Amino acid sequence: MSNFLLRKAEPKDVSDILRLIKELAKFEKMEEQVILTEKELLEDGFGDHPFYHCVVAEVPEDKQSSDGYTVIGFAMYYFTYDPWIGKLLYLEDFYVMKEFRGSGIGSDILKVLSETAVKTRCSSMHFIVAEWNKPSIEFYKRRGASDLSDEEGWRLYAIEKNDLLKISAK
Amino acid sequence: MDFSIRASTLEDCKDIARMILELAEYEKVLDQVKVTQKELEQDGFIKNPFFHGIVAEVPEQHRTKEGHAKVGYALYFYTYSSWKGRALYMEDLYVMPEFRGKGIGKALMSKVAQLGLAAGCTQLNFAVLDWNKPSLDFYLSQGCFDVTADMGYHCMRCEGAALEQLAQGDT
Description:
The structure holds 2 protein chains of 2 kinds. Chain A is 35% helix and 29% strand. Chain A has a 5-stranded mixed beta sheet with strand order 1-2-3-4-5, sandwiched between helices. Chain A is globular. Chain A has 6 helices and 7 strands; from the N terminus they run E-H-H-E-E-E-H-E-H-E-H-E-H. Chain A is of the alpha+beta class. The longest helix of chain B has 15 residues, at 104-118. Chain B has helices spanning 13-26, 37-44, 104-118, 133-141, 147-151, 160-168, and strands at residues 4-7, 52-57, 70-81, 85-95, 123-129, 145-146, 153-159. Strand 6 (146-147) of chain A pairs antiparallel with strand 7 of chain B, so a sheet runs across the interface.
């Protein structure tokens, strides 16, 4: 099935983007952690200095999902910086609704992102994957991704707002 | 010891480049550094910079024997959490060995936290090597938690030939 198109997200897509973010978070067993709102997505993605960029996958009306949606996949990314090698593309979220998998939509999204990375002279594309998510890990490793946590010993750390407030007050 | 923390300027790129190499050497990966002082100047000081920097500076009388007054730095940039919105990623945090233990690292991190909160960020993320015990201890004492250990997230990378092939759709 090549009956889908990939395009840059527009302001009208924020409702679908948030829906898909929540579906992906549910899959990662983290649904209650999503506190982002449509208003924030709109301000942060479509102002003068966007914090993120988004690509969406859309199917025609006659191919809509069982619950009536035509925007059925997305990827959210932004540019980061490695002082050793320069610009990088960071893939924050990447998701295709279950009923639309297996038709090459995910592969095509990844292709578009990689083209963007190469065109903007990024040396690398980075992302995180949960270690129990075997299907995704296999998908990425087949495409040449390496696991930096395993291979180089990198561990991702986080400080949440409460502790940030304490640190900033010191 | 007296020191000041401030946003980096174009003129600081030479010292930042020097300290990037020092940090890479500490992490045993000096051969991986390809970025030049010129690229740092270009990428950090344009209208929409790819990163922001802060430096720690000591007064003349405390300069190193090679004459350096800029003795620490942090590099960070804004990212986005699809769960929580605006976030900050601290890419590098470094203080020259002879200036450690004086609160400079804490002050640099505090400045990063302040700037992040002011910009509406609710989270600060960064990566640490699992053998780097002094850094791990320092971060845990500041209230950080290990996302890789606690939630099982692994950092992945796709680069070079693999990235090119992905772009061409050859899987």
